[in-house]
Each structure stands twice: as structure tokens, then as C-alpha cells.
Write a structure and sequence with these properties.
The protein is α/β, with parallel strands linked by helices. The protein contains ten helices and five strands. β4, α4 and β5 form a beta-alpha-beta unit. It is globular. 30% of the residues are buried.
Length: 215
Amino acid sequence: MPAEKQILIVDDHPIMRMGLRAMISDKDDLAVIGEAGTANDALEFVESHEQIDLVILDMSLPDRSGLDLIKDLRVMRPEIKCLFISSHDENVYAERVLRAGGRGYVMKDRAPDCLEVAIRTVLKGGVFLSPDMTAKLMEVLAGGNAGSEVAGLTDRELEVYRAIGSGKTSREIADLLGISIRTVDAHRTHIKNKLGLRDAAELNYQAIRWMDSQS
């Protein structure tokens, strides 16, 4: 029997972690060796454990985004593979995950057997995306136009845009992301320019509409 693959689950919802642990632990060659509810807890766990083969993580964490976490993990332990399991639209985030160093993206509403395939694909060194997402990325690479309205935003600008769409003020966004209000306002300006929006009111309206489309 092959050695068990060591897996860390990072998700801020205890029920989600419990479900993932139950599904994974049912496999003889997979072992969940830890759970974390925040990015900082995940980093502390990684620092204190020598063998971790895979980190399964969500996009939204209380202290930092999953994209920020994966970038830190790539610096700390580049040998660890990362697989995202998230409710956020793969059309928006899957390509960003791959650019950040992730090896796969699975929507939370997928069947459990799809998740197992994703885990095993990534552990073997492959990349896992849904067939639809794979086709869209291939179209982009071939020169087609398959992007979304937020495709041109940086990861940080997308975080700000999401927060605006959630109705947060500049102060709340600054506190949430650990940046200054001046930096938030600079991101707002960049987002407006990239999306061709005229003013703050139009930015707020467009961000809210976009967030509604993601739910």
C-alpha cells in the first residue's frame, strides 16, 4: 500500500471542514493531518509540520484571501500543492489561482467524486479544472474573447471590488484588507478606469450588480 498523502484543510466554516475530513479520511491512502480556519493558522501549521503534500483551501478566509495565502505558501514550501474548493465563480478565480501557483479549482457544489478526482489529479502533479473552465481557458489562449468584466483587475483590485459590491465603506475595506484608506481610494480609481466607469456612484452600482450575479 502506498504511503498516505498528508492533507491540510483550510476553511473558515467548521461544518465544511468536517465534511471534507470525513470524505477524505474514508480513503486508505489519504490522511487529513490538520485543519485551519484562518490564513494565519494555516501558515503556523505549515511551519510546524515537516510533511504536507496538499493544502485544500477556500478563497474567502477571515483574515486574508486564499490567493494571498497560496502566494505565501509558494514562498515557504514550494513543494506543497494547493487545491481550491470554493463557492466563488470559477470563471473569475480559476485562472487567478493557476497564476498564483495553485493546481486546481473546484466549486463547492460539485459532487464528492469530482472532488476526489481533483485531489488525486493534483497530488499526481496534474492540474484540475472543470471541463467548461478548461475550454474557456483554451479559448483565451487561442485568442478568443472569453473573459469577464473583472478579468483585467489585479487580485487586490478584485478584493476591493468585491468589498464595494458587498456595501462596505472605504474605512471598512481598509480594515478588512489591512491597507490604508488612501490605498483603497487609489484602487477605486484604478478600478473605475479599467472598467470605464464615470464616478463613485456608477462604481458602487456596477460592483453591487456584479456581486449579485455571483450569488
